[in-house]
Amino acid sequence: MATVREAAFDLFREHGMTTIFGNPGSTELPMLADFPGDFRYVLGLQEAVAVGMADGYAQASGHTTHVNLHTAPGVGNGMGAIFNAQANKSPLLVTAGQQVRAQMTLQANLTNRDAIRMPHPLVKWSYEPPRAEDVPHALARGIHLASLPPRGPVFLSLPMDDWTVEAPAEEVEHVISRRVSGRAVAAPDLVEALAQRLSAASSPVLVAGPDVDASGAWDTAIALAERQRLPVWASPAPGGGRLGFPEGHPNFRGTLPPAIGPVAQVLEGHDLILVAGSSVFPYYPHIPGPLLPEGAQLVAITADPDEAARAPMGDAIVADVGLTLEALLAAVPESDREPPEAVPPPEYPPESDPLSPSTVHGTLAELFPEDGIVVLESPSSTMALRNQFRLSRPGSYYFGAGGGLGFGLAAAIGVQIAQPDRPVVCVLGEGSAQYAITGLWTAVAYEVPVTFLVLRNEEYAILKWFADAEQVEGAPGLDLPALDCAAIAAGYGVSSHRAEGLDDLRTSLEGALTSSRPELIEVAVEPGMALF
Ligand SMILES: Cc1ncc(C[n+]2csc(CCOP(=O)(O)OP(=O)(O)O)c2C)c(N)n1
Predict the structure, then answer these.
(1) Strand 397-399 relative to strand 232-234: parallel, antiparallel, unpaired?
(2) How far is the CA of 337 from the centre of ligand 1 (A)?
(3) Residue 37: which residues within 8 A CB-CB, separation 6 or more?
(4) Any idea what DSSP says for residue 277?
(5) Is the CB of 408 under 6 A from ligand 1?
(6) Ligand 1: does its nearest atom lie under 6 Å from the Cβ of 378?
(7) CB neighbour class for 353 (10 Å; exposed up to 12, middle 13-18, buried from 19)
(8) What does pTM read for this prediction?
(9) 285-302, pLDDT tens digit by residue?
(10) Distance 453 CA to ligand 1 centre (A)
(11) Count of C-beta atoms within a 10 Å radius of residue 473
């Protein structure tokens, strides 16, 4: 007879979930007992980092990923990162330990007294099984729910004395062998009607969002844009956690601005806006204006019913983005509209002291390997990086769609573990780096060769920009003098370097990109926002 623990690990094995991220405490040790040799445990030194790494790993591998947190305080530490994971639609099985059942009612130390309610608004399902025997079934249910569209985190609180209880054999056999799938194509008449609207439009445009990449629709989006001669915009950067279209493709125009009025302005002249795999739209800040340009209609394809329902304008089709784009592609003819012409990246400013963030990003873009991956969290220069780069392969870009800092550094490690053959560069502001700085230890301990490029502007530049936009004067806490990331990294055992000038930056980037260990390069940059 198998124990609950043996059944659980068989279930994880069956789903290919043999890499577990976590930070353990006394309430998690019974789960980790006799840890099987075919599993890998990746230790994060703080729960937010463990969740962020799992988020990156889940997105870059495409598979539901298990992250195990310490009971109440550990779940609390992880909540900001769980918020990010739901915004990223990252399929996570988040488990946490709990007091032994016999001591929960008297609320012994470390009891999570309302475990289900704690992460509730951030997860698709939050549960504590009523009996130890229900743990394998609850884990399976959580894995299926996390994997079904819209993907996202689920949470299970697991009392620490459950793991050694005997599991119900027949039930477990069924639970382990079940497969649940949720990719659904839109009804044929909807696809046909959309195909007719698209072909009949005089100037249609495609807005490609993160779920194009997540649903494996990269090539289909290219084929559709080419067949219908569609100019293509990336969905606005704050919510555009992944790219939906190759930035080096001649049809690619750029990244939409993240505000109501400016989006309508940029899309002026188009009569049909087809949005694939994005919410409509991830706006911030609030710059009012018309929701759509004069005379334009909008249709969104999304696998997320909530995204479809909450959009303030346009129609929506709820279905798998990849399958629906394929069906649409098959239903539209070759168009005779004029094909768009390529937009080259803007020229970056010449060397200055300190360097402009645009010069740093332009230089990185020049050296960037074909198969490289960028994980970005450098708030005041997000747009500069997007404008300087022309990333053109699927799975090449990850950005925290939720906006909670700490995603970048942690997720880059998870992405690199999931994609060991592709070089990962994590571009960070020195302020952002602090939210997950302990991740550097994990990168060293597990030999994860991420290149961390830290832009040091000695301030929270984007908050100064927001202060201006919000007409806030005299706000404290927006300067970061003397935060020495190279020295901090050295303390974690990361090989680090402070780049002085452009030549040094170039040489050190070249070295780091081919290094087989984590490297951190800090570069001083001009304060303020960098857009191009
Ligand atoms: C968890 C969390 N706390 C606070 C913020 C607010 N915030 C947004 S950007 C920012 C400053 C980031 O500083 P830095 O990385 O140095 O980037 P810069 O703005 O200078 O480019 C802060 C504190 C946030 N987004 N997430």
Answers:
(1) unpaired
(2) 43
(3) none
(4) S
(5) no
(6) yes
(7) exposed
(8) 0.98
(9) 999 999 999 999 999 999
(10) 16
(11) 7
